[in-house]
């Protein structure tokens, strides 16, 4: 009975949050179709690389003919936080749940981590595993729906969906920029570095984005560290 209660709790916690996946997953399916990927490839993206922004970035880099190493390195940097999340979440798992760590860790997303972190008691496998599966089910299903929808939309609307990549990143950046001048500076710095490296035209296609991420992240780590220390 306790196990059933944990599953019900996972459903009640997860569904209201994971509903927010629907518009983003549909958009990803549309963008994947418009970029020339097959339905299977679009689904594989969401099955093996459920990172949201990382998936959009991968398609963007692919479209500008970035090499595989460059794409891998960029997505790795963007999702480095998931290693820290996995480590932090491990401390909240019961001993029984830790037996499923190899299954739980690869399925962590920002949302499932946040929901799990809010739990006051130790997390049972009957809670964390259904919670993660619900999120993945929403993402996989609506990626497919978005891809199929792309076949029925007028060509001009379908083609315009490419802007969704940029709209997604802007929607994530602007709220953070409003909160902090430091973050605003880092964003503007990364934009300038990206433009400057592209202007030099000495690196392969796509590496301007990768180098902009690395350099601005390095500079930002010092700026944000000083900001946190000054607030303490």
Descriptive report:
- The chain has 232 residues and is an all-alpha fold.
- The chain folds into 2 domains: 1-161, no CATH class; 179-231, no CATH class.
- 78% of the residues lie in helices and 0% in strands.
- It is built from 14 helices and no strands.
- The protein has helices at 2-18, 21-34, 39-48, 53-63, 68-78, 81-90, 95-98, 101-104, 110-117, 125-150, 155-160, 164-179, 181-200, 207-231.
- Helix 2 packs across helix 10, helix 4 (53-63) runs antiparallel to helix 5 and helix 5 (68-78) packs parallel to helix 14 (207-231).
- The protein is globular and about 60 Å long.
- The mean pLDDT is 80.
Topology:
Layout: H1 2-18, H2 21-34, H3 39-48, H4 53-63, H5 68-78, H6 81-90, H7 95-98, H8 101-104, H9 110-117, H10 125-150, H11 155-160, H12 164-179, H13 181-200, H14 207-231
Helix pairs in contact: 1-10, 2-3, 2-10, 3-10, 4-5, 5-14, 6-9, 12-13, 13-14
Strand-residue proportion: under 5%
Number of helices: 14
Main beta-sheet annotation: none
Shape: globular
What would you report as the Rg, rounded to the nearest angstrom?
20 Å
Number of strands: 0
**Domains counted in the coordinates: how many?**
2
Q: Terminal Cα separation, in Å?
A: 46 Å
Structural class: mainly alpha
Order of helices and strands: HHHHHHHHHHHHHH
Residue share in helix: over 70%
Give the integer mean of the pLDDT values: 80
Low-pLDDT runs? none
